[in-house]
Amino acid sequence: KNQVEQSPQSLIILEGKNCTLQCNYTVSPFSNLRWYKQDTGRGPVSLTIMTFSENTKSNGRYTATLDADTKQSSLHITASQLSDSASYICVVSFGGGFKTIFGAGTRLFVKA
Amino acid sequence: DAMVIQNPRYQVTQFGKPVTLSCSQTLNHNVMYWYQQKSSQAPKLLFHYYDKDFNNEADTPDNFQSRRPNTSFCFLDIRSPGLGDAAMYLCATSRDGRGGIDEQFFGPGTRLTVL
């Protein structure tokens, strides 16, 4: 069964700290994996996108990793800011086409 | 430099009263998608257009329809909204939709309330 699972479901950290969010998937054939940030009441905004051959990609303080063998991805946030408080959604595309599966997201709260 | 625009941002309708949500894009992308997102859940794809070709997801209720009169605009019509249709509706676009790397760009969403 094609699935995308994210952990943790929610996370609270202090401003300035680092954190890592996880995404495990079971899809075939894999096309790409994307991480989105979704602020409350807004549409998702793309952070990174990786294909099978890429194992790391950075976007400012956000660094995504991909292990295609174990079908795992992580999103590492460095020196968190209050504005990082949002939901982070892992999206996996497969089947070489329009098929995508969204993870349920990790809700991150950054506290002062 | 708005790229995917959704109107209105907030829509209130009555139970059973038809409602139309609008999406427009300035990216000239071939593919436009409509998603439904309920509170604390992942977005759920309702359907997408590849150019003029309409592709409905198998579990999308008949109550939801869509129109794409041209490349730039796509509409979501809810013929008889029920209380369970209250949600955020997200429009997204992508250049091609196929291949290994094709990013979806999302609009800000329309929050639908059904009274």
Model description:
- The complex is a heterodimer of chains A (112) and B (115).
- In chain A, strands 2, 4, 5, 9, 10 and 11 form a 6-stranded mixed beta sheet that branches. A 5-stranded antiparallel beta sheet of chain A has the order 1-3-8-7-6, with no helix packed on it.
- Chain A is an all-beta fold and 112 residues long.
- Chain A is globular and about 45 Å long.
- Chain A contains no helices and 11 strands.
- In chain A, strand 4 and strand 5 form a beta hairpin.
- The radius of gyration of chain B is 13 Å and the shape is globular.
- The model of chain B has no long low-confidence stretch (mean pLDDT 91).
- Chain B is 0% helix and 50% strand.
- The chains are: A mainly beta (112), B mainly beta (115).
- At the A-B interface, strand 4, strand 5 and strand 9 of A face strand 5, strand 9 and strand 10 of B.
Helix content of chain B: under 10%
The overall pLDDT of chain B, averaged over residues, is: 91
Task: Identify the most extensive interface between protein chains.
Answer: A-B, 25 and 29 residues
What's the assembly state of these chains?
A: heterodimer
Helix tally of chain A?
0
Annotation keywords:
heterodimer, A: 112 residues, mainly beta, six-stranded mixed β-sheet, five-stranded antiparallel β-sheet, B: 115 residues, seven-stranded mixed β-sheet, 0% helix, globular
Summarize it:
The complex is a heterodimer of chains A (about 110) and B (about 120). Chain A has about 110 residues and is mainly β.
Topology:
The complex is a heterodimer of chains A (112) and B (115).
Chain A: E1 3-7, E2 10-14, E3 19-26, E4 30-38, E5 45-51, E6 56-59, E7 62-67, E8 72-77, E9 86-94, E10 99-102, E11 106-111
Parallel strand pairs in A: 2-11
Antiparallel strand pairs in A: 1-3, 3-8, 4-5, 4-9, 6-7, 7-8, 9-10, 9-11
Chain B: E1 4-7, E2 10-13, E3 19-25, E4 31-37, E5 44-50, E6 53-56, E7 64-67, E8 73-78, E9 87-94, E10 105-106, E11 110-114
Parallel strand pairs in B: 2-11
Antiparallel strand pairs in B: 1-3, 3-8, 4-5, 4-9, 5-6, 7-8, 9-10, 9-11
